[in-house]
Design goal:
single chain; mainly beta; 2,3-Dihydroxybiphenyl 1,2-Dioxygenase, domain 1; two-stranded antiparallel sheet; 2 helices; 13% helix
Amino acid sequence: MEEDQTEPEQAGLEVMNSSASRTTTAGMLRKVDAVMVRVPDLDRGLAFYRDGLGHGLLWRNDYIGQAGLAVPESDTEIVLTTELDYAPTWLVASADEAAQAFVEAGGLVITEAFEIPVGRCAVVADAFGNELVLLDLSKGGYVVDDNGSVTGVEKPGPGDPPAY
């Protein structure tokens, strides 16, 4: 029996190479900034994700019940949280404008944009019911001490690497 040698284009299939599959058009969602993982308390979450799985501590903010952990091959963080449910956190230019764009596109706002230490945050659902956290870093990033404890917020200057 001969193998079918029909080219994908001849079979009516669209073929895209990896460079063509990426678009340069600006979109609302800039990148996955973090994945929120709900834990009963930060110490137990850190015992599992940092001590057990080996993810390094980037920052810890006990005031808001969150800690950021490194993902080795990405700048996306694992954010342990005692308050929020499991969800992807998308970096956007403006949480308020992105939430409005979701509504205009047929989604809905679950939690209106609110102030956080590093900027603003909103929770939305797309037209299919998937919840997303929208985050802008309009106030800057966390400044941490040698132990990873948050000591303040600082807006990076031109040419500075982004803060956590």
